[in-house]
Amino acid sequence: MSRHYYLFGLFILFVMMGTHSNGYADVPGAPILLAQNVYWAQSNQDASADEQESEKDEYDDEYEDDVQLIADPISGINRGMYHFNDKLYFWALKPVARGYGFIVPDVIREGIRNFFHNIRFPGRFINCMLQAKTDKAAAEFATFYVNTIVGLLGFFDPAADDPRLHPSPEDTGQTFAVWGAGFGPYITLPFLGPSSGRDAVGLVGDTFVDPLFWLLDFWPEGLAVRAGTTVNNTSMRIGDYEALKEAALDPYVAIRNAYAQNRNKLIAE
């Protein structure tokens, strides 16, 4: 019986901590990197075919040569954490998210995702201002205003009709980078997935500008909301992480390099 309580506790901790940010606050554990790759792909849909092919070839070359785009001095520990997160995803989070997705209609799950993205507007807005990105800050404010008023507190996303109102997300790690901080060492955080020394410290800032941190007690309301949003968003991404693993000769290296590439791209924007 004690073993069952231990495993249940691990699962609760996993979903509770599935709010790791780096721009994708509701994506849990190992699949967070995938969410970043999905955004990276979507943000390049307007690029020309030649540009996309060039980017793909560049990534292939980097992967084949195993070029470290970020220092990885504790690769042994990081690999262990990667496998830990991977097992938790397949053994705990994925089955729950799949059952949830079977029961709850797509429109409701999309509304929940939209609502929590909308309510976390302050973090994105503040980091835009700290980076002196006034145009992006204005776009974030306009998106929040439209979706809150017209979109019924953010459950709908009418701002999506205007491409100017969907800037790439900003977080505290990106702010540190704009201020001159380097990546630091690559870190695979237990439960949270890929990160770096700089972005791990940035998580503290992201936490304090998250309205849910101030509005909800840690237990039980805060835990329940974080678990629910994690399961909800994971249910809309099942299959993507698996595809990423199957396409990579070494998933750990692919995730590490893609993480660094994506963060550099977001910072450059």
Sheet with the most strands: spatial strand order: 1-2
Rg for CA atoms: 18 Å
Sheet-strand content, in percent, reads under 5%
Q: What fraction, in percent, of the residue positions are helical?
A: 55-70%
- The helix-strand sequence is HHHHHHHHEEHHHHH
Shape: globular
Low-pLDDT stretches:
1-54, 61-65
Number of strands: 2
How would you portray this structure in words?
The chain has 269 residues and is mostly helical. The protein has one domain. The protein is built from 13 helices and 2 strands, in the order ααααααααββααααα. It has helices at 2-16, 31-43, 49-64, 75-103, 106-119, 121-130, 134-149, 172-178, 197-208, 211-215, 218-235, 240-247, 251-268; strands at 186-189, 193-196. It has a two-stranded antiparallel ribbon with strand order 1-2. Helix 1 (2-16) crosses helix 11 (218-235) and helix 4 packs across helix 11 (218-235). The chain is globular. The protein starts with a helix and ends with a helix. 37% of the residues are buried.
List the helices and strands and how they pair.
Layout: H1 2-16, H2 31-43, H3 49-64, H4 75-103, H5 106-119, H6 121-130, H7 134-149, H8 172-178, E1 186-189, E2 193-196, H9 197-208, H10 211-215, H11 218-235, H12 240-247, H13 251-268
Antiparallel strand pairs: 1-2
Keywords:
67% helix; 3% strand; two-stranded antiparallel ribbon; mainly alpha; 269 residues
